[in-house]
């Protein structure tokens, strides 16, 4: 029996596990219960071994999307890229697949790759994975535009409620009083917050929303369908606020189908300021969610975490702003 | 003097260079002339050292953009991601900055990172860098939607000329005879090929293009400006083919500004099939450039290159196809 095999056996005996479990922990593989892993790591240290969590992190940021698609991805990538470059690092992109939750294979991969920081977009990390990353000293931050973070995880989002206020203030200042709202998914914090901010500002001006609030699902088709419904009503609204840019594009399409001119017959305000908002006909007035800055901030938070100054489970919300283009104007009397 | 310092001195003497040059080569740094590097690498081998080019490649694909922006990026990333995942690899993203040519710092970085393959988007690689990557056994492929590859570099693009043919055939079949074209940048192969294919199909049907060909610069604004010009002409065209989707969106906007209905007063065909083509008002009929497949193909070509079967400087052009949506219809008589 070689010396190292004998050491392995000693460690296994100390930790009360099989030698193959020790080897799993040493190689950063999954399939070991957290308590067992901790016991093995203590035994490893007492024998002068470094558990994988204490080996050097590699100079890159790992950026995890459920899927790299949607107009969101490009901006987020640019922001994370910017943060990594400022530290002389590169960016590794991974996809967690068709679920909000990266699986155990992903965790294995991360542990092998040992990034200096992980940014998870739109993700819920199961408790096991959180513990796994924390144990290995890999700092992670959730980039969460949906505004619904787990309470024990550091995350970056944007100010949805204030964004809604900005949209309402703009329409009120233009003189609109007959205003309708197409909210995004009703079960998502971000859409509820946007609508709540909008409504609160209207209430401050004593302008009722009444029956003119409907809910969609963030797709362009929802904007077409609900836009048609609102614009066909007797006493048609003079302005519509949509909970994201895609639904606002749908409202533009609904107006076009009805032969209504935007902004002369109806003003439209979107939310997000995706690239496409500049390209629509007419270009869209919208609330800007600073996705690139959010990506940058999330990456920097992760990279600046250190053993002596670990990440707190804080929430950072970056400011939103109003971008006025050509889809809004004073109402025609 | 330690043994290794003495070995370094021997190697330096053998290669007739300074020890610091040997150390540069060993660490894969730049600033060494190619002939000198080769001499040092021979000397290294004769002393039993592995030059960096012979060390193991790491399990990831490096994807290099000039800038991660434009609607192109997301699709390309998805394709490269798919190829990498099929080999159990991840993707590293880097930006070469505001130039078409990645600089020497980039080459240093790649040599340190040692990707299994490199995909360069829209890039011209200087001769030095090509040689540098080749020397180190790192295979690279240029993803080149612009259709203008250097002759000695493997590259992936798409069939621009045939794409133009498809667009023309569609409009002819609908019955259009008064057709105008807004070409993309006249100095780019891809735009010239699209227009040439389009024109060739019209000529086959004895439909003249005459004065109805103008050139833009691929921006939405060009589509607005040139679209207004064409649509204000006496004997207005019944259909306009634009050299990319952004210019086609501009034509939609021009029609909207003139109170013309698309497709009833004028049909519009774009090129690229970016995501935004589905979202415009009306959704755009366009020629699809398979960007994700192009990214996938480029990554697989690079990954499948091996020392015993190196990449040839081949050009692969993937097929384009027509996507019919709502911006085209028969002309009104």
From TrEMBL, chains A, B:
Xref: SMART domains: HTH_LACI
Origin superkingdom: Bacteria
Domain HTH lacI-type: 6-59
Pfam families attached to this UniProt entry: LacI (PF00356), Peripla_BP_3 (PF13377)
Database matches in InterPro entries: HTH_LacI, LacI/GalR-like_sensor, Lambda_DNA-bd_dom_sf, Peripla_BP_I
UniProt keyword annotations, A-Z: DNA-binding, Transcription, Transcription regulation
GO MF entries: DNA binding
Name of the protein this chain belongs to: LacI family DNA-binding transcriptional regulator
């Amino acid at each position: 029996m070689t010396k190292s095999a004998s050491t392995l056996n000693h460690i296994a005996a100390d930790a009360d596990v099989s030698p193959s479990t020790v080897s799993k922990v040493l190689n950063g593989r999954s399939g070991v219960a957290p308590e067992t892993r901790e016991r093995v790591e203590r035994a490893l240290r007492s024998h002068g071994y470094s558990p994988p969590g204490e080996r050097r992190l590699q100079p890159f940021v790992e950026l995890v999307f459920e899927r790299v698609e949607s107009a969101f991805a490009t901006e987020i990538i640019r922001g994370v890229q910017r943060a990594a470059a400022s530290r002389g690092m590169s960016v590794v992109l991974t996809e967690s697949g068709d679920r909000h939750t990266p699986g155990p294979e992903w965790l294995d991969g991360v542990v092998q790759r040992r990034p200096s920081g992980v940014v998870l977009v739109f993700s819920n990390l199961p408790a096991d994975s959180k513990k796994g990353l924390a144990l290995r000293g890999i700092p992670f931050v959730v980039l969460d535009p949906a505004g619904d973070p787990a309470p024990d995880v550091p995350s970056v989002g944007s100010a949805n409620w204030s964004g809604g206020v900005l949209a309402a203030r703009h329409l009120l200042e233009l003189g609109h009083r007959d205003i309708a709202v197409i909210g995004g998914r009703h079960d998502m914090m971000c859409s509820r917050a946007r609508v709540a901010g909008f409504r609160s500002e209207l209430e401050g001006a004593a302008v009722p929303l009444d029956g003119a609030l409907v809910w969609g699902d963030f797709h362009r088709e929802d904007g077409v369908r609900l836009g048609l419904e609102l614009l066909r009503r007797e006493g048609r609204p003079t302005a519509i606020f949509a909970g994201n840019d895609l639904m606002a594009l749908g409202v533009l399409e609904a107006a076009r189908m009805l032969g209504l001119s935007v902004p002369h017959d109806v003003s439209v305000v979107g939310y997000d300021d995706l690239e496409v908002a500049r390209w629509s006909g007419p270009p869209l007035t919208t609330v800007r969610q600073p996705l690139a800055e959010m990506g940058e901030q999330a990456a920097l938070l992760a990279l600046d975490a250190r053993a002596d100054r670990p990440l707190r489970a804080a929430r950072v919300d970056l400011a939103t702003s109003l971008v006025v283009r050509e889809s809004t104007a004073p109402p025609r009397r």
